[in-house]
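for the writeup, i need someone to sanity check this before i put it in the appendix. the sequnce is what the collaborator sent (i think, or maybe the updated version? ugh). structure was predicted straight from it, no edits. if anything looks off just tell me and ill rerun, i have time this weekend
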Amino acid sequence: MKSAGGISPNLSGATWRSSTYSGGNNECVEVADDLPHVVHVRDSKRVTGPVITFSRAAWGTFLANLG
């Protein structure tokens, strides 16, 4: 599994959960925010596909500006 930047993060210790913003319609993203320093996001339908990695600060800014 590679992140959007082409780097393969070590996600062996990640715990994935559905995003609370997904709405429960099976078209959602999953978030792994239990690892130090970063938050990983993936498409729930493509769990072996690409992963987007955010710094905790960037993720916090993203969440603060959702709406």
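The chain has a mean pLDDT of 81. Helices lie at 56-64.
thx in advance!!
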